[in-house]
Amino acid sequence: MDVVSRCLLSAQEADSLCAAAQSALTAQGSPAHPSFYEGLEDHFHRIPASIRHALRDLRESPTLCALHISGVRVDPERCGPTPLSWQAGLDDDRQALEEAQLALLASFLGSVFAWPTIQRGRMVQNLLPVEKDREEQSGHGSVALEWHTEDGFHPDRCRYLALLGVRNHDRVPTTLGTVHDLGLADDLRAVLRERRFLIRPDLEHLRQLAAYAPDSDMLRQARAMHENPEPVALLFGDPDAPCLRIDAPYTTALPGDDEAAEALAAITGELDRAQRDVVVGEGDVLIVDNYRAVHGRRAFRPRFDGTDRWLKRISVAGRAPAPAMAGAGTRSQAL
Ligand SMILES: [Fe+2]
């Protein structure tokens, strides 16, 4: 079963996407701000038909877990050196054309949003290694980033995660594991479908809130979700085409529930076994269905000299394929 579809742009298609992004930039302003996305659908018709078909396939297929597009126009020289911190990238508009292309593709799938807790709510985030964060489980670390559902702890987590490669000389892989990779017995699946698991917020949310909004209600809520999380199921939706929600470092079985602990060990082992590498290189866009796939990153050795791996990230809200799950989001999610 093909779970990652490929879309290789011709030079003409790449030029057309770039021109569509340029006209959106002229009309809408910076993709870093929410106002860019108001009325952006007026520009969708300028996205080449082959790309629109590939995006529709991802949205409508019961089996596809990711779409890998190659050949998007990226100009690393104009973009500048890889920033040494996400703060340095906040007001840098040299990558606006690249961001607008990613924003157009992502918006075609649903409503783009940003967490106010991550990179101060910037709608397009910079993923790059930060020297002091080498050991962190985040987009700024350089140790192996364990596989996870993006914001798996939160009911309003994104439906799709869209990444664009500005620079990746070392071809550092992103990892993917999908719900179709799970060779699990029915009794284990039944346990995984029950609310017998806890997923705590990742520490990046808590760290940034503590740094930038130490007295906020959001920080209090995030701490409550960390200290007293609601039990959740890890598999849900249609049993024949289930959805998945798990975050390796932050997921536990309910205390004392040995059966749930056994099922968690089994699904963790299957996802460890199934990880595949996808290199998001210069001009690649990888869109991951966050309800059907987990993702991570292999360890790498950064240089911190402006040439390191640099990706752009956008989150897209959207309803889960199963009727029971909520997932719709707003333009700026609150915890
Ligand atoms: Fe992630």
Automatic annotation (TrEMBL):
Signal peptide positions (record): none
Protein's recorded name: L-asparagine oxygenase
Keyword set includes Cell division: no
Record-linked InterPro entries: Clavaminate_syn-like (IPR014503), TauD-like_sf (IPR042098), TauD/TfdA-like (IPR003819)
Keyword Oxidoreductase: yes
Keywords: Iron, Metal-binding, Oxidoreductase
Annotated ranges, domain TauD/TfdA-like: 96-314
